[in-house]
């Protein structure tokens, strides 16, 4: 009997060791975030099935971009959070471009209930964002002071609710406007980091001809999240690792930037399927050294 107990004990111990290492390996394979805008069409067709695919591709957390009438991708905030968690995914950030000073309180409550940490504004809100269809260029109307004040007001509301407000850039914020002001510089210098910080889209900064590392050094700690989005030789969106952006150089300055989370994003996947693109990009993250 003693021998049997010893053998059984050793077997259980061995099984436990294997289980531990299996869980450790799985934890290593699941890392990084995905901006769900990358798979927006799939999310519109079947959000739950798509989130399963996102988890299978190895991502650990997500950024949403599908809020409408109090729901995230057709799910109540608590339901969305629970479903993400059932797939081993963490809700970290959500783009809330529809925010105004009038609806901010309700949106913040829903974002909080869904378990997100970052309330991210993807373009100048409240009708300030502009897009010229002929030239395919983005911009804004209104003053930089107006934008900074709106962000600060919403940022204070977020801070009071236990959320963090980020502003996400495209290319125009990193180019001088008609008054000779570089919008991102104005925002960085005229907002309080207690209430307003930034999500740097590495593609759009590069497209604007600016250097992400130079901004990290000039404004350390202000870029709490990144969109890791690559650019091909024609200037189009590309899977991470298949383009021209030197992500290793940028990643080396992670601490300086203040980056806490990052999200793969590819607005258009061209001749590839979005669900294939996210797998390619996750492999690219590994090769570059993201974890």
Structure description:
- The protein is of the alpha/beta class.
- It is 43% helix and 18% strand.
- The chain is built from 12 helices and 14 strands.
- Helix 5 crosses helix 6.
- About 6% of the residues have low confidence.
Q: How many beta-strand elements?
A: 14
Strand order of the largest sheet: 1-2-5-6-9-10-11-14
Q: What's the average pLDDT?
A: 93
Helix run count: 12
- How can the largest sheet be summarized? 8 strands, parallel, barrel
Stretches where pLDDT is under 50 for at least 5 consecutive residues are 11-27
Report how far apart the termini are: 48 Å
Order of helices and strands: HEHHEEEHEHEEEHEHEHHEEEHHEH
What quaternary form is this? single chain
Shape: globular
Per DSSP, what share of the residues sits in E-state strands of 2 or more residues? 15-25%
Estimated radius of gyration: 21 Å
Helix percent reads 40-55%
Helices and strands, with pairings:
Elements: H1 2-29, E1 33-35, H2 40-45, H3 47-56, E2 61-64, E3 67-68, E4 71-72, H4 77-86, E5 90-95, H5 104-113, E6 118-121, E7 129-132, E8 137-140, H6 144-161, E9 164-168, H7 183-189, E10 197-201, H8 202-207, H9 212-218, E11 223-228, E12 230-231, E13 237-238, H10 247-251, H11 254-257, E14 261-264, H12 274-288
Parallel strand pairs: 1-2, 1-14, 2-5, 5-6, 6-9, 9-10, 10-11, 11-14
Antiparallel strand pairs: 3-4, 7-8, 12-13
Helix pairs in contact: 5-6
Outline:
With 291 residues, the chain is of the alpha/beta class. Helix content is 43%, strand content 18%.
Key features?
291 residues, alpha/beta, eight-stranded parallel barrel, two-stranded antiparallel sheet
